[in-house]
Amino acid sequence: MKVLRSFRLWCVALVAVLALALATAPATSTAAARIAHLETLVKCPACEDISVAVSNATSAVAVRHEITQKVHEGKSDNEILTSLEDAYGPSILLSPSTSGIGSLLWAGPLCVLVVILVIGVRLARRRR
Amino acid sequence: MTLTWLGRIALYVAFLGAAGGAVSQLVALRAKRPARALWWAILALAGIFAAIVVMQYALITHNFSLAYVAQNNATFTPLLYSITGMWSALEGSLLLWALLLAALTVGVISYYRRSSSDEVVGWATAVLFSIGAFFTFLMMGPADPFLHNPAHVLQGAGPNALLQDNPLVAVHPPLLYAGFVGFTVPFAFAIAMLITGRVQDRWPLEQRRWTVLAWGALSLGIILGAWWSYQVLGWGGFWGWDPVENAALLPWLTATAYIHSVIVQDRRGLFRVWNLSLAIATFALTVLGTFFTRSGVLQSVHSFSSSTLGPLLIGLFFFTVALGVVLLAWRGDSLRSPVGVDHPLSREGLFVANNILFVGFAIVVLLGTVFPLLYEAVNGTQVSVGTPYFASIAAPLSVVLLALMAIAPLVSWRTVDAGVLWSRLRVTAWSAVGVVALLVAFGVRHLSVLGAAFLATCAAGAALRTLRGALVAAKRRGSVLSAVRAPSTGGMIVHLGIVILAVGIVVSTSYTTRSEVTLAEGQSTVVDGQYVSFSHFNEVKDALESSLQLEVRVDGHALVPAVTTYNGRSSTVGTPAIDSNLLRDVYVTFDADGASGAASGAQVQSNLSARQVVLGVTVEPLLAWLWIGGLVVGLGSAVSFLRRRHNDEAA
Amino acid sequence: MKRTILVASLAALVVIVAFSIFLGTRQPVTDATDAPSPLLGKSAPAILGHELGGGSFSLRRELGHVVVVNFWASWCEPCVQEAPNLSTLAWRERNDNVVVIGVVFDDPVSAAQAFATHYGSLYASVLDPGGAIANNYGVTSPPTTFVIDTKGKVEATLLGAASLSQLVGTVKRVQG
Known about the structure:
The complex is a heterotrimer.
Chain A: H1 2-23, H2 31-39, H3 58-72, H4 77-88, H5 103-126
Chain B: H1 2-31, H2 37-60, H3 67-72, H4 79-84, H5 90-111, H6 119-140, H7 172-182, H8 184-196, H9 203-232, H10 243-268, H11 272-293, H12 309-335, H13 347-379, H14 387-407, H15 418-441, H16 447-477, H17 489-511, E1 513-520, E2 524-527, E3 530-541, E4 545-554, E5 557-559, E6 562-566, E7 572-575, E8 577-580, E9 584-593, E10 603-604, E11 612-621, H18 624-640
Parallel strand pairs in B: 9-10
Antiparallel strand pairs in B: 1-11, 2-3, 3-4, 4-5, 4-6, 6-7, 8-9, 9-11
Helix pairs in contact in B: 1-2, 1-6, 2-5, 5-6, 5-7, 6-8, 7-9, 8-11, 9-10, 9-18, 10-11, 10-13, 11-12, 13-14, 14-16, 15-16, 16-17, 17-18
Chain C: H1 2-24, E1 33-34, E2 48-50, E3 56-58, E4 66-72, H2 77-92, E5 98-104, H3 109-118, E6 124-126, H4 132-137, E7 144-148, E8 154-159, H5 164-175
Parallel strand pairs in C: 4-5, 5-6
Antiparallel strand pairs in C: 1-8, 2-3, 4-7, 7-8
């Protein structure tokens, strides 16, 4: 019982510290934060793998300007990404859309999660 | 022509050694008598070694009668890059692979020479010989490094620019290949164990030793590759989830799972069939990785191998996996252990979680890497799968893995006792809360940084506690040094290295700042708390290169970012300059100048005056700890090699 | 239990066969990539300058033609592979309202001249002192090719060395 009490005390301390951190955290959905996040999702058109957030190619700078402009126009994240995809083709996005065959990309990790849960449940049931 | 024929004869000798060795092993196994494996292996090694001597001679003396030398070397190529030119492209890199495999075969045979009559050793040797014969065969036919150059040229193209501006080219590929080739040994023994049906006694832990060596080399190779990319590619990052990077990561993931689950097999005899499958899968993934990568040159998956090499490598991959599946189907039932896992939160249960996570992540990475090909085949258009996808899966995965690292070393085998577990966790848990409170007091609000700090403290605490336990037990036995051979010492050091790595990655990615500054000669400014000044241009023109360099000072240290054109192949690369200390890295690139008229290749901006430059300045806190963590991981795996079996306490 | 293992093995084998055949039949990508450029669909930036062999070139004069603009440099290896393809394209399509023009990217005049002479280009190339044209087109690494339609809009961008069939195909597509 002493063990349980000490564990509970620790949980309270942890939750308190986290609550303090969350309560005093600055507002996160500023325009600048949105722009920075969107920039990591869009590929630099002239490069192999990197996003417009880190590339300095002129085409990357141009795409960054487009994103900034659209955010200030009040468009939602989804609208901005879709408009970029329409203009440049699906290869501009670093994470493909989930429609059609793209759903396979997310089905994979989901399957792994299911396997974990199934094995965990079977192990828990089997124990003596 | 002489060099071509010398090299080719050497390769034929090597092939004779490997193929002859394989045949003689199979014959001996049928006749149930020992074979003279060592002589065949030495023959194969001698052949490869001679071939490499021929190639290195041609590279160092800039002999362009070999087409390979004409494409990867020039008269002004420095000695180091002439030597490393051997693995700068496909055909030569196969020489390195074959050398490591032949040397490993000799090593394995002589290590087990006293057990040479053991069937398992016999079959494993046969497998090693066969794979060596395959790779040598590749060089005799489709990927001939000694192709004669019919044109009489006075100058070669020189290596690719990115392969001659950093000395890490001398260590990264060999370490990587040492890792890949090293995984052939557990594979060979897994096949041998399946064929003979003998999975018990000393073999699993023995195989773990070999795997840990290969794993350590591969880990170091991957870390050094990341460090190399960081130093030269110009965007301040170190991992891009590029298909070729993923190709090296896949066998690493399954090998990590194997290293953990084979401990359970040693302790309690569980997971026999699973471990055999992991050993086979790891080797198959290295073959698949070679198929994706094509050579030591890092290109995206778009640059496939030549049309004959691709199908051959896929053929080996298919044959390997098919052989494994068939053998497992044949033997699997009779090899299953009679006991099971008692509780999901026992040590065995947590190892099961570890394995599922690593293997699951490997499947996800493989899917993500192959997906663009699948998409193009179905829809006809191109699609990219990049960092956002992989990172969004890797992030929660790392959280769970850190949590596992924090608990598993403290949990008992077979049973779970909450009270005992909490008493072992208590000190670390309170320290972790203290660390988080301290960070919050200092103004840190990033949830990812707080979470990482919390879990890192817990994981480090578990590792340190285990190490202390080993030290105490060793002192009681009278020999402090024997703590090094304790079962978990090496592993705990590796865990500490991973913790350091994780902290470095999370902090640097959360707090990186990027800016562009325009400076004229002699001007200085303050960027993100760093004092940056640009003093002057520097033009360098010599036989090797012509480059436009900038003399820059950051916080008092001199840096030289530049744009360099290497003569010969005439490719231009930007070379970043880094000021690094334990607290932060400042990464400076030469982004643009005001058209000084030189053929610099840096972007030209028309609104700049001729003596102005645009510098990219990236500040990344705690980045150096990534490389330190990697070193600790390497050290830990070396220590892990000395591990003794859990019941050899007196030894 | 034995049957489960057999079924699982068979399934695994089928997956591996399909996977291996799929990967084994992928063709190496030798063509240029259809790059997503910010200029697609917009009016092509002006190209005005002196040609390598003398004479001058203005993109505006070519309104009504399909113009293939290729940025190249003598120090760029893929440009060497691509040059013959562009020459063949220029010759084949000369009566078909198609103009091929090169732009020298970041290269001293002498080196560019030597390259053009050596490869006997059947098309002219414009000098770009200061890299202003390259900057306007957002070109960071040659070879990069733009195909402009008869109305002066950029309709295709190719990054990397383009094969002849790819060039012809793209031109046909832009011609409509």
